[in-house]
Amino acid sequence: MSLLTYKGYTAEVEYDAQEGILYGHVLDLRDTITFQSESASEIVDEFRTSVDEYLSFCAEQGIEPAKPYSGTLYPYQPGCASRSRHRGGTEWEKPQCVAC
């Protein structure tokens, strides 16, 4: 498994010995971007082409391209001492807790 990065998108590449191809997909994205190649020298170009085609498609359709997830979660925990802030409370009502 190898990772490739291009224009803020990261992809995972794997080898399928049975089919004799390299294939990959972009990680941490709600949309699906895939690519494949029969040679290692072409897989990077295929990845870049797939990302560029995805961005072009989004531009043509007038939609915002999906951004990779940052990996940061902002959980709300029921019973949290700062729940008033989560419901529109003021900064003065903001006790600190691990979740906030």
What does this structure look like?
Helix content is 26%, strand content 23%. It has 100 residues and is an alpha+beta fold. A hairpin with a 7-residue loop joins strand 3 and strand 4 (34-37). The longest helix has 22 residues, at 40-61. The chain is globular and about 40 Å long.
Side-by-side strand order of the widest sheet: 1-2-3-4
Overall residue-averaged pLDDT value = 82
Output the number of helix runs: 2
Estimate the strand proportion. 15-25%
What structural category characterises the helix and strand content? Answer: alpha+beta
Radius of gyration in whole Å, from Cα? Answer: 21 Å
Apparent shape: globular
Q: How many extended strands?
A: 4
For the record, give the distance between the C-alpha atoms at the N and C termini, rounded to a whole number: 36 Å
Reported for the largest beta sheet, the result is: 4 strands, antiparallel
Share of residues in helices:
25-40%
Low-confidence stretches are none
**What pattern of helices and strands is seen along the backbone?**
EEEEHH
